[in-house]
# Entry
Amino acid sequence: QVSLEESGGGSVQAGGSLRLSCVIIGFRLDVGSVGWFRQIPGEEREGVATIDSGGDTSYSDSVKGRFTITKESGQNIINVYLQMNNLQPEDTATYYCAGDSGLRRSQELLVLRPGPGGAWGQGTQVTVSP
# Structure
C-alpha cells in the first residue's frame, strides 16, 4: 500500500521561498511518475510540477523558472521536494503530493493527474501575502 505525507507548507511574503517535502512509501518510481499539485477552494486541482523515473521534469507555465522539483529514491522510499522561489499571492493554495505508477512520463502526470490507481497525500497549505 502506498502512503504519501507532505510537509513544509507555511506562510511567506511575496518574493519569499518555501521548500515542500513529500515522503512516499510503497511506490514504484521505476515505472511511474510523482509530483505536486495544488488546489484553491472552488477550483479544480492543477498540476504544478512532476518528475518521472528517468528524472525528466514537467512544470506548469505559471511556475516555470520559479519552482524546482527533485527526488531522492531509496529502497521502498522516495523523497520528493518542491523548491518554490519568488512566491506570489497567486501561489496560495493547498499543495498535494501525488503519484501514479501507470503514468510513465512526467508530462502525462502533470496533464492527466493520477488515475484510479494513483495516490494522493493529505496536502499542505501554502499562503503568500502581498
